[in-house]
Amino acid sequence: MSLEVFTLWVGDSLYGIDISQVLSIHSDIEKIQKVPVDKSGLLGIAMYQDQPTPIFGLSQCLKMRPRAEEREELVGILTDREKDHVDWLSSLETSIKTGSPFTKATDPKQCAFGKWYDAFTTKDDILVEILEKFDEPHKKFMVWLKR
């Protein structure tokens, strides 16, 4: 007999749950009906195979910040860093057109994105893969500028 386990990271700890004890895993909470019960982690109920089924949020059960909040914060940070770079390019364009000195960072580790990127850590392999795609072009452009 073999045991199949669903693994997940919670903070810096790796957990495993016997897959036979898991009915379903979803991040879509739109179909959950709220219930007037104050139980830790209970998000509400949803219909599963025509049966009302209690839905629990793992992060709430563990008294942790929900992943949706973490994602929203990350999107906000990346949106702000994008605005920084739009402003940076605008300043560079003005400097080229007017001959005025360019005073923004030219070291990719000194701009707000570079500082954030170098300090950011995650165990989310997909997110790491996406963010790595930002790194090389970000560094290459700054090196080109220094020529």
3D architecture notes:
This protein is α+β, with helices and mostly antiparallel strands and 147 residues long. It has two domains: 57 residues, no CATH class; 79 residues. 44% of the residues lie in helices and 17% in strands. The protein is built from four helices and four strands. A two-stranded antiparallel ribbon has the order 1-2. A two-stranded antiparallel ribbon has the order 3-4. The protein is elongated. The model has no long low-confidence stretch (mean pLDDT 84).
User: What string gives the helices and strands in order?
Assistant: EEEEHHHH
Largest sheet: 2 strands, antiparallel
Mean pLDDT: 84
Termini separation comes to 64 Å
User: Would you tell me the structural class of the helices and strands?
Assistant: alpha+beta
* Proportion of residues in β-strands: 15-25%
Bulk shape:
elongated
Tally the beta strands: 4
Alpha-carbon Rg, integer: 23 Å
Number of helices: 4
Total discrete domains: 2
Low-confidence stretches: none
Query: Helix proportion of residues, in percent?
Result: 40-55%
Strand sequence of the main sheet, in spatial order? 1-2
